[in-house]
Write a structure and sequence with these properties.
- This protein has 2 helices and 3 strands, in the order αβββα.
- The chain has about 140 residues and is of the alpha+beta class.
- It has one domain.
- The chain starts with a helix and ends in a 36-residue tail after the last helix.
């Protein structure tokens, strides 16, 4: 069953409201690492402006970073949903527009059987200007 335009617009507004309510966020992957001497620590790996970055995370701050990373994942998922809904809405609008245009199409634009269909106009002809002087003529 296809959704109506109003249903999709309502879902988009719900996604926007959820996006607006998101808290602190940061991209990346939080992982626990082990040093050669055996002690453990957390680090966050992410990319910023096309560069891979890795930062140490204090053990007492790990829960905060973990929550921010989860919020970033929610952001990405909500944006994906919003885009999917907008694409679906665009398709519905395009079909509605085409249906409305077909109803108002004048009868004389309907192609008669056996009539030739006009092809594409093609690229415009190059502009012609004054010819450059030949080598034989004085400058």
């Amino acid at each position: 069953m296809s959704k109506s335009q109003a249903q999709i617009e309502k879902e988009i507004e719900k996604v926007k409201a959820t996006l607006a309510s998101l808290g602190r966020l940061r991209p990346g992957t939080l992982s626990k690492q082990t040093r050669a001497r055996g002690d453990r620590y957390f680090q966050i790996t992410f990319s910023q402006k096309g560069k891979a970055r890795c930062e140490y995370v204090r053990p007492d701050y790990e829960p905060t970073i973990r929550e921010e990373v989860q919020t970033y994942r929610q952001l990405r998922e909500l944006v994906r949903q919003w885009i999917d809904l907008e694409l679906e809405l665009s398709r519905i609008r395009q079909v509605a527009h085409a249906a409305g245009r077909q109803e108002t199409k004048p009868a004389e634009t309907v192609r008669q059987p056996g009539a030739r269909r006009a092809g594409p106009a093609g690229p415009p002809a190059p502009e012609t200007g004054p010819e450059p002087p030949s080598e034989d003529s004085p400058h």
